[in-house]
Design a protein that fits this description.
The protein is α/β, with parallel strands linked by helices. The protein has one domain: Glycosidases (TIM Barrel), CATH 3.20.20. It contains 14 helices and 13 strands. The strands form 3 sheets. The chain has an 8-stranded parallel beta sheet. A 3-stranded mixed beta sheet has the order 6-8-9. The radius of gyration is 21 Å and the shape is globular.
Length: 467
C-alpha cells in the first residue's frame, strides 16, 4: 500500500519548475465538510439539506450519497498527516453546521465541538494555518424546512453558528470565511435545481442571494465579537467575455457581470448593489441590510473556474412560456477543457485579478485565491502511481497567472488548490475527482497523486524562498 504521507515529496520526472511567487505567499488546499466527512449520523449530527437531496433518485450522477464520502470525520488524523507531507501553509475546510447545531440553532453538540478542536490543534502542531468556512452549502434540514436561504431568519441563524464557532476556536483559527461562493449556491441550489435544495426558481432565487450576503455580514460581526483576527470571504468570480462586439452582446455581458460578480463585490466592499440589479431586490433589502453586509474584511477570496462568454438572448416568440433571460452563456471556444468540460483559461484568472484591483482600488483588501479546481479521474496504475499530469499543468498555469498578477501590482497573498482529497462532489458524486490525493470509495484508501508530489515541490520552494 502506498504511504499516505511521504516524509518527502517524490520528484516527478516531467515536473516543471514552480512559478515565482511573492515572499510570504501562502500555498494551501481546501475541502468541504459534506464532500469529505461522511459520518452522516455519528455523534448526534443532524440532517442537512444535502442528506435529503442526494437520496432523491436521479439527482446524483452516479447514484452515490455523501453518507460516507471520504470518511474524513473518522480519518481526520490521517488526512492531517497528508497535509504535513504536502508541506502547505494553509488548509481551508468547512464546519458541518449540522454537526455543531443539529437543528441549526440552540445548544451546540459537545462531540462536534470536540471534533473540530482536535482537528484545529493537530493542524497547528504540524504548522498548517486553518481557514475555517462556516457554511459550505450543507444547511441543516430544519432550517431548510423553514425556507432555507429564502428566509431572512437563516441569516440570523448563521450568526448564531458564527458566535458558537468563534467563541470556541477564534483563539486558534487564523482565517474565517462565513459563506462559500454565494452565487454558486444560489444559482445551482435555488435557480437551476442542480444542487440542494433543488429549487428551480430562476431569477426568483435572488432573495436567497441577498440573505446569503446578509448572513455573511451578520457572521462577520459575530466573529469579530468573538475575537476573530482575520475574516474574509470566498466568492466565485469570472471575467465576462462578450460573444461579439455587437452592442447587444456587450450589454448582455455587462448585465451578467453585475449579476455574477457585482452582487458579491459591491455590497461587500461598497455597501450597495449594482444599479442593474437593484430593482430585482427592491422588495427584499431591508433597512440597514447593506450596512450590515459591508463589513471591513481582512482579505477578499476569489474562487475561479473560467471566463464566461455571454451573448444577448435570441428574440423569443409571443407563445414562449414566461419571461426569457436577456442573456445566454455560451461555450468558451479555442481552449482545452477539464474532464467536466470547464475551459482551461489561466489567463482569465490573471485578467480578473488585475481588473478587480483596477475597479475597486482602495476598497479592495488583500486578495486570496480561495479555490482553483481541475477535474481529472486518473486512478492508481499497477505500481500504485496516479499519473495526473493534466492537474499539474493546470495548477502550474494558474499559479503562474497569479504570480504575473502580483508582478502587476495586485496584492495577492495566497492560493488554495481544490482539493486535498477526492470525495463526494455534489451532484456529480464520485464521478468528478478533484483531489491531489486519490480516495478509493470502496476501501477509502488514500493514494497521493503525482500532483500531490508536484505541489509539495512548489510548497518546499516557497518555504525555501523565505530563508
Amino acid at each position: 500500500m502506498p504511504p499516505t504521507a511521504p516524509d518527502a515529496a517524490t520528484p516527478s520526472p516531467a515536473s516543471p519548475p514552480p512559478p515565482l511567487l511573492p515572499p510570504g505567499f501562502v500555498l494551501g488546499v481546501g475541502t468541504a465538510a459534506y464532500a469529505v466527512e461522511g459520518a452522516a449520523t455519528a455523534d448526534g449530527r443532524g440532517e442537512s439539506c444535502w442528506d435529503v437531496f442526494d437520496r432523491v433518485p436521479g439527482v446524483i450522477e452516479d447514484g452515490t450519497t455523501g453518507a460516507v464520502a471520504a470518511d474524513g470525520y473518522h480519518r481526520w488524523a490521517e488526512d492531517v498527516d497528508l497535509l504535513r507531507g504536502l508541506g502547505v501553509g494553509g488548509y481551508r475546510f468547512s464546519l458541518s453546521w449540522s454537526r455543531l447545531l443539529p437543528t441549526g440553532r440552540g445548544a451546540p453538540l459537545a462531540a462536534g465541538l470536540d471534533h473540530y478542536d482536535r482537528l484545529i490543534d493537530r493542524l497547528l502542531e504540524v504548522g498548517v494555518e486553518p481557514m475555517v468556512v462556516l457554511h459550505h452549502w450543507d444547511l441543516p434540514q430544519a432550517l431548510q424546512l423553514e425556507g432555507g436561504w429564502l428566509n431572512p431568519d437563516t441569516a440570523r441563524a448563521l450568526a448564531e453558528l458564527a458566535a458558537v464557532a468563534g467563541e470556541r476556536y477564534a483563539d486558534r483559527v487564523a482565517h474565517w470565511v462565513p459563506v462559500d461562493q454565494p452565487t454558486v449556491l444560489t444559482t445551482r441550489g435555488y435557480a437551476a435545481g442542480m444542487h440542494a435544495p433543488g429549487y428551480r426558481f430562476g431569477m426568483g432565487a435572488m432573495p436567497a442571494l441577498h440573505h446569503l450576503n446578509l448572513g455573511h455580514g451578520l457572521a462577520v460581526l459575530a466573529l469579530r465579537a468573538a475575537g476573530a483576527r482575520s475574516v474574509g470571504c470566498a466568492a466565485n468570480h469570472a471575467p465576462m467575455w462578450p460573444a461579439s462586439e455587437d452592442a447587444a452582446d456587450v450589454g448582455a455581458a455587462k448585465l451578467f457581470d453585475a449579476l455574477w460578480n457585482g452582487t458579491q463585490l459591491e455590497p461587500m466592499l461598497l455597501g450597495r448593489y449594482p444599479a442593474d440589479v437593484e430593482p430585482l431586490l427592491a422588495d427584499v433589502v431591508g433597512p440597514g441590510d447593506l450596512a450590515t453586509i459591508r463589513q471591513p474584511l481582512d482579505f477578499y477570496g476569489v474562487s475561479y473556474d473560467a471566463p464566461l462568454r455571454v451573448s444577448a438572448a435570441p428574440a423569443t416568440s409571443a407563445s414562449s412560456d414566461g419571461p426569457a433571460d436577456p442573456f445566454q452563456v455560451r461555450a468558451v471556444v479555442g481552449h482545452d477543457v477539464t474532464e467536466d468540460g470547464v475551459p482551461i483559461v489561466p489567463e482569465g484568472l490573471r485578467e480578473w485579478l488585475i481588473q478587480l484591483r483596477a475597479r475597486f482600488r482602495a476598497a479592495l483588501p488583500p486578495v486570496v485565491v480561495t479555490a482553483v479546481t481541475c477535474a481529472q479521474g486518473a486512478g492508481p496504475d499497477r505500481g500504485g502511481v496516479v499519473d495526473d499530469q493534466a492537474r499539474i499543468d493546470h495548477l502550474r498555469a494558474h499559479l503562474e497567472a497569479v504570480a504575473e498578477a502580483a508582478q502587476r501590482g495586485v496584492d495577492v497573498r495566497g492560493f488554495y488548490a481544490w482539493s486535498l482529497l477526492d470525495g463526494f462532489s455534489w451532484n456529480r458524486g464520485w464521478a468528478r475527482r478533484t483531489g491531489l490525493v486519490h480516495v478509493d470509495p470502496g476501501t477509502l484508501v488514500r493514494t497521493p497523486k503525482r500532483s500531490y508530489d508536484w505541489y509539495a515541490e512548489v510548497a518546499a520552494a516557497q518555504t525555501a524562498s523565505l530563508g
